[in-house]
Amino acid sequence: MTLPDGRSPLPAGALDAAETVLPLDGGGIHVCQDGPRDAPALLLIHGSAASTRSWDAIVPALAASHRVIRIDLLGHGRSAKPVDGDYGISEQARRAARVLDLLGAERAVVAGHSSGGLTAVALAEQHPELVTALALINTGPHLDAFTAKQAGTIGPAQWPPTDEQIRRFASGAFREGYAIPQELVDELRGMAFHAFTSAMQASLGYLGQQPVPDRLANLGKPLQVIYGQLDGRWRPSSFADYGAVPGARLDPLPGVGHTPILEAPAPTAALLLSFTATHRA
């Protein structure tokens, strides 16, 4: 069954449900919502090999003043993982726009962690009318800044990976000594190998086409860049390259690695809230 305009109908109560799976073409997308439904919308997009759960520690602070919408990108978390799925950044952005449309969120501040920031940028490129402002959290600016090319490779013969293999692969994603939560280890193991590799390749491919600061320079969107100064995946000094974007706000976090939303949730949430306070949807 489809609606007169060709769209699929929403499941009963999906607009207000705390969690639901929206039936999008190409595979269902798992969505979480927190906070007042009439508050300004804030869309959170996780990085590769992660899920909505990576935002858990900062959502309570954000949901006090925002309608916080989180999605599991295709191939991740509780979203569909089709073997023939399109895991490209542009297609992930198209699905994110579809989610906002189905939920009735006409505009949103969009925040992305790591490669999730690439999907956020692609969403602003495709639908500038939907995106009020962008917040990128440890999103690498260009391929020259990537420092994790040989880190913890996992091949198809090793899938599903062991806890040790996953922790070795993820070592660069956190500051030294940080204890990676077991639930995140389990979620990565739950990914299909084709989705895991496709997501990684899609991110590098998108960056290879054009550096992120160049993409943003002419978009005219307010930009915040939050980054841990001990990032083990991207050269920390490279985040200064976002200064080429007119009006960009750069917020470094000393003593924090690639994943501030887990390593330093309180200061990360505070920085994000100070930005959204002046750029609400």
What does this molecule look like?
The chain has 281 residues and is α/β, with parallel strands linked by helices. The chain has a single domain, classed as Alpha/Beta hydrolase fold, catalytic domain (Rossmann fold). The chain has 9 helices and 8 strands. The protein has an 8-stranded mixed beta sheet with strand order 1-2-4-3-5-6-7-8, with helices on both faces. Helix 2 packs across helix 3. Residues 1-6 have low confidence and may be disordered.
Helix/strand layout:
Layout: E1 19-22, E2 29-34, E3 41-45, H1 59-63, E4 67-71, H2 89-102, E5 108-113, H3 116-126, E6 131-137, H4 163-169, H5 182-189, H6 193-209, H7 212-217, E7 223-228, E8 249-253, H8 260-263, H9 265-276
Helix pairs in contact: 2-3
Instruction: Estimate the strand proportion.
Output: 15-25%
Shape: globular
How many whole angstroms does the radius of gyration measure? 18 Å
The total domain count is 1
| CA(first)-CA(last) distance | 32 Å
| N-to-C SSE string, H for helix and E for strand | EEEHEHEHEHHHHEEHH
Instruction: Work out the oligomeric state of the chains in this entry.
Output: single chain
- Enumerate the strands of the largest sheet in spatial order, edge to edge or round the barrel: 1-2-4-3-5-6-7-8
Mean pLDDT: 92
User: How many beta-strand segments?
Assistant: 8
Count of individual helical segments: 9
Describe the sheet with the most strands.
8 strands, mixed
